[in-house]
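The protein record passed on below.

***
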Amino acid sequence: MKKIMIDLDRTIVDGGYLEVLNEYLGTNYTYDDIDGYFVEDFLPQEQLDDYLEYFYNNINIYDYTTIKPNAIEIIEKLSKKYEVFICSAYLDKRVPEKSGVVTNNKHMWLLKNLPFLDPKNFIFTSRKDIIDCEIKIDDKVGNLKGCGEIKLLMDGYHNQDYTEEDLKERGIIRVRDWNEVADILL
């Protein structure tokens, strides 16, 4: 049975981070205002430190996310055809001592929302490039390394700089939603 690695954040679930930042700051930023992967990166350092303290001590980000349309149903179908692993980054280099908080939240979300998967197939690492499998689905190009056959890049605001030509040279296919994933893999 072929192995498939699926990312969690911005691949299965969307949002959360900007909503929490807006709640904390009392602002109405949109993803058009964000230039980069981490939405809070545009904060000045003194504000960032306070925000990260608030975030890690008070927030379960998965209370703020939404599941991408059809993601759960399609992952369940994939699990009947492939050995499915959910591989999610956990380390925040800015506050590594707090990273376990998010890992626990991810684990609990996965248990609740993907009960058809064996929890032994949940991998928490910030080095997804070392995961060797036939198929990978992720929203970050760098995480698609170490893949044999099919690399699917989940479309996102933070990966628009990659042209279709760039992706083709890397052997990557951009998918806009889970229905496109199903068309390719099912």
In short: The mean pLDDT is 92. The chain has six helices and eight strands.
